[in-house]
Specification:
This protein has 13 helices and twelve strands. Helix 2 runs antiparallel to helix 9 and helix 9 (about 270-315) packs parallel to helix 12 (about 375-400). It is elongated, with a radius of gyration of 32 Å. Helix content is about 55%, strand content about 15%. The longest helix is centred in the last third of the chain and has 44 residues, at about 270-315. It has two domains: about 1-55 and about 280-410, no CATH class; about 85-265, no CATH class. It has about 400 residues and is of the alpha+beta class. Residues about 70-80 have low confidence and may be disordered. Strands 1, 2, 3, 4, 5, 6, 7, 8, 9, 10, 11 and 12 form a twelve-stranded mixed β-sheet that branches.
Length: about 400
């Protein structure tokens, strides 16, 4: 039986070579369908890995308190979305003073997202994020210094023009020069570099390599604007006490914000792992869309392959008649054409898997994920190609096996 299958595979490859251009086109259609599936799903796995890695760096025992109106919200029934009062610096500072739960609290805010940083002839792209933070900001946010130092309490209170650079910013501006002590320009203001962050990697905008940190005091002096909302970040001592810390923080901030009993909070308390879970949940919709696109492409490939096999049966009618005349059974003819369809599909699947892994890992590398070999999607692609080959080849194979040998021999 095995030798019979090997012989059928040889015959299938010979038939493929005889109609090379037509087969290549079909193989490419199948390959693009598998590439869409394997590539996009591999890329999504890489994005998920990168998101989880970046939020893990923040720590599993962190949460943030932020203004409830910071995210885009859509009103219902034609009404405008409700706007909430921004969190002021005095409210955030009061929280840090009165929050006695064993933890580390920090106040920060986004100064700008469109800054250009210059040093002599070098400058960054005009999309650098500038954050203002206090003395605890680095520890709570999961950043570490590669060189230099943190702000002091006095520098934060006085708003001294000092800056800590993200790793990529420092590399862009200073090449092989030590940046510590150098003066850089952020907009029209001059800042002295006192530290450089360790390389952290960038994922979906969550990395720390393309950002800079100034003191919260300096932010209040140069970047204050109406409706600027401050963010409170809390690092609990351990993951087990996180929920207790979160409950106590919510109660204290309701008191500070004067939220009455029974009213909804006009702020949000979000755990770091909740943010990553929300992002991954949204990505699942992309996974669904990619899968549908891949299946539609494969459906088109299956129809094209069936057409090719039907044409092949017609072109090889005389050959089928000769085979039957010398004793080939209908089962053997059926197997021959079915194996030919499966071989074409597997060739397309193999090519699509190679392209998909390359494309998926290119996207994964771009967003800061690691190299992934998607064994699950590879196995799924092989099985899917087998199914497509069987579905596309079964009808032409049955048609070929039912040909009358006498009529087939007379076919011109």
């Amino acid at each position: 039986m095995n030798s019979l299958i090997r012989e059928n595979i040889k015959v299938a490859l010979q038939a493929i070579r005889s109609q090379l251009l037509r087969t290549i086109l079909t193989v490419l259609i199948i390959a693009f369908g598998i590439m869409a599936l394997v590539g996009i799903l591999t890329a999504i796995d890489g994005i998920k890995q990168s998101i989880n890695s970046n939020f893990a760096n923040m720590g599993a025992n962190t949460f943030t308190i932020r203004n409830r109106g910071d995210q885009i919200r859509i009103g219902r029934n034609g009404t405008k979305p409700k706007k909430f009062r921004s969190i002021t610096y005095s409210e955030a500072e009061r929280f840090c003073e009165e929050f006695t739960f064993p933890s580390l609290a920090s106040v920060s805010a986004l100064a700008t997202q469109i800054a250009t940083i210059r040093y002599e002839g070098n400058k960054t792209n005009p999309n650098t994020n500038i954050f203002g933070g206090d003395i605890n900001y680095l520890a709570v946010s999961g950043y570490e210094l590669e060189s230099g130092r943190n702000f002091s309490n006095q520098e934060i209170q006085s708003g001294t023009s000092l800056v800590i650079l993200g790793n990529e910013i420092a590399t862009t501006l200073f090449k092989n020069i030590d940046p510590l002590g150098k003066i850089v320009s952020i907009g029209s203001n001059k800042y002295k570099v006192i530290g450089v962050l360790k390389e952290k990697g960038s994922s979906m905008g969550f990395g720390g390599d393309k950002m800079c940190i100034i003191s919260i005091g300096n932010l209040r002096h140069y970047y204050m604007r109406p409706k600027l909302s401050f963010v409170i970040s809390v690092l609990a001592n351990d993951a087990q006490s996180l929920d207790n810390a979160l409950s106590e923080a919510t109660g204290l901030f309701r008191k500070i914000r004067e939220v009455k009993l029974g009213e909804d909070e006009n702020f949000e308390v979000v755990k770091s792992d909740s943010l990553s879970a929300l992002l991954i949940e949204n990505i699942s919709y992309v996974t669904m869309a990619a899968t549908i696109i891949g299946f539609i492409t494969l459906l088109g490939a299956a129809i094209g392959l069936m057409n090719i096999m039907l044409v092949s049966v017609t072109e090889r009618t005389r050959e089928i008649g000769i085979r039957k005349a010398i004793g080939a059974k209908a089962k053997l003819i059926r197997q021959q054409f079915l194996i030919e369809a499966i071989v074409i599909c597997q060739l397309g699947g193999l090519l699509g898997i190679i392209f998909g892994i390359a494309m998926g890992n290119a996207v994964s590398f771009f967003v800061g994920g690691g190299f992934i070999i998607p064994w699950l999607w590879i196995s799924g692609g092989i099985i899917l190609c087998f199914i497509v080959g069987v579905v596309s080849g079964i009808y032409p194979a049955i048609k070929a096996s039912k040909l009358d040998p006498i009529e087939a021999l007379r076919f011109e």
